[in-house]
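# nightly structure sweep
# worker-07 picked up a monomer target from the shared queue
# config: single-sequence mode, recycle default, output format = structure tokens
# input follows
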Amino acid sequence: MLVYESTKSGFLDDVVEGHLVPEIKQGYESEGIGMGGAGEVQAWKNSLQYMHTVLSGSSVPDDAGVAIEFKIPLTSRRIDFLVSGYDEADNANVVIIELKQWNGDSTQAVNDKDGIVKTALGGGIRETTHPSYQAVSYAQLLKDFNISIREKPINLHPLAYLHNFEPLYRETLDNETYRPYTEQAPLYIRGDTKKLRAFLESQINVGDDRENLYEMNEGKIRPAKSLQNSLVEMLDARDEFTLIDSQKVIFEKAVELAKQSRRDGKKRVLLVDGGPGTGKTVVAINVLAELIQSDMVAQYVSKNRAPREVYKEKLRGDKLVKEIEHLFTGAGSFVDTDTDTLPALIADEAHRLNEESTFFGRGENQIMEIINAAKFSVFFIDESQRVHIDDIGSKQEIHKHATDLGAEIEELTLESQFRCNGSKGYIAWVDDVLQIRRTANADGFDLEFDLRVFASPEALHTAIEEQNERTRLSRVVAGYCWEWEKDGRSDPDVTDITIGDYERSWNLDTSDPWAIAEGSIDEVGCIHTCQGLEFDYVGVIIGEDLKYRDGEIVVDHEARASTDRSLFGIKKMFKENPEQAAETAEELIKNTYRTLMTRGMKGCYLYCCDDELQKYLKTRIENSSITH
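# output follows
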């Protein structure tokens, strides 16, 4: 979708006559999207005035194509500015221009991360992708999926234009660290108008009257062979993605149903129920790869950023993120997607789906939007991991929307148990201990599993650090009972959690997934950064929101930090319907600790802020038949 398209001469006239921004605004509104506030409008005026200056003095033909805000397939991202035409050798060319308002004095290089910089965003200095990386990744995505670009072919030439960036700070972004991207997408800053103009003139010698833009816009999407081969190599190099037992059965069924929907055009939904450690995400990634191999466009979808970022990193290994970045997306990405646009969507952690998407502040129901957008959709779900007041993901809800949208639905269960050393017994024991439900495992469970209660959080953290030295991955997590102050979220010297002499930071707010980021063993993760993931050993600090009184596990929603949005609205609910509110608070808080306590494959170490809960858990463990 092109928000705005014209020729060079038409673009120049629209700028001079003051028509351009209203036309862009109208283009947004035609999609039901607001353009943004006065600040965003002013940013557009500034950037487009600079592009007017570049083009008005150039020999780029008047009938060269110009487009603004080209929506990239499979993403919510848009390319800021495009110029199209032919060069002297009659090659079809499109120049992709990433525009930025950045000032050099607030921008910092990040030398130890791939394609990442720090700059002023959202009221603070935050990590984000390098502008050249962005432009390169957009071009790669289009090559990977747009048939017209590959078959014509249309040559894509990405670049970044930071028109406010002072030359004094050029080395911050245009240095050896970012050379893999700046070589592919040159970086132009303030004072580079003539250089950028010369580059455009070298690529666009003959006008196309928007022909190449239209062909890009209308091009069918299908995965390129290079992407297919790359994905196969990634999977083959990772033993952890090997499927066994019921995982293989679910995988084959999902692929079969997706291919059936491609053949007969019928909408289908597969619902996969699986508890902690059953390998839901491993199956999901394998289904994604297999469908891409089968020339089907597919995406992995999750509400939580953590699992998709971690598994994307695991899958790519040493390869560049841009090769598979667009295969992983958030659950709010399908608000505006037409019916049956995509062959397949794979929704992991489906219990975390919401009614209203945060995507542009709109959305009706993420389950409905996913089913509507795809011919085939598969939902991996564990209803007992609902931990947020807005979580609506349930088997009943999925059945309802599948029926409403005329989809055939099948339901299967993942049985294999990997986490907690291969037994359902530990999970059942946790349910009994937390008084979620009475189980036959009240007296223990039959497996070798390291389960302990520590006398202090310092001792717990030290033990997990020692395990992390010996094992693949071990981490400390906690209930969200300590504030995560905005000003210190990226500063490792700022401590958030204080329990006596124990002081630690919540997971730092960086571009890297916390669970596998360097240095994260020193931090404490929360439910939002570890749900859907697994560790060898997990240390769980249980906050004051879970207590033990008179033989009962009780919850205290007021002990939750105000920065945690999981229970946002519960106070109002207590005023309007106290019984329902109490049930909701109990379910969500207990589910949170159930989820945290089932992240470990080999062991779980516990510390409780509530003394009585500490004694209760220690007694339950000592009196249980557990193999250590």
